[in-house]
Write a structure and sequence with these properties.
This protein has helices at about 85-95, 140-150, 155-160, 190-205; strands at about 5-15, 20, 30-35, 40-45, 50-55, 55, 75-80, 110, 125, 130-135, 165-170, 175, 180-185. It is α+β, with helices and mostly antiparallel strands.
Amino acid sequence: MKEIMLTIQVISISIGKIEDILLPKNDSSKPVKSGINKSSISHLNNRAVVNIKLNGINGDQQADLTVHGGVRKAVYVYPHEHYSFWNQLLRREIKKSEPLNFGALGENLTVQGVTEEDVFVGDRWEVGSAVFEVTELREPCFKFNIKMEYKGAAKAMVQSKFSGWYLSVVKEGAIRAGDHILVIAGKRETSIADQNANLLQIKNQKNLDF
């Protein structure tokens, strides 16, 4: 396997507990369970060590393992580079003045130095004493709309192709914010950007005015 020369750093590690999230006021259905609300437990100002298990980050919970969690989707990664897009979009659409905190997209790892074009299914990431493998893109659901307080959030993620991606855990270990990521190439046949392009074609959605 070949090492890929990218300078990638973990800048935040976030976890969340399963809790009720409220549906929009005009929806009569009951609240739904979700672990999408994540809070940073290790960041560049407090580089706490976090343990990684085969089912994900120690202390993190997921309510629906068909969409997040389990072996193939143990850890969700999102690029810091996309935060400016979301801050601008939410400022315009819902007048949100405060910038998003790390973990706001529901991610476990906020990273810097890599985006979907650079990430391929089957790549391995060595971080701290843990080893991960890239598995697939994140496809947003209605819970993401609720989390972002914007009904167009899931559509915006699909159309922008700013999805982030999931990792499985190959080797348990410990990581912390500030760790650099060593990428070991897999077959490099399908990138997360490729998967995003396919998803957009399948969804056949009209453009939002970004």
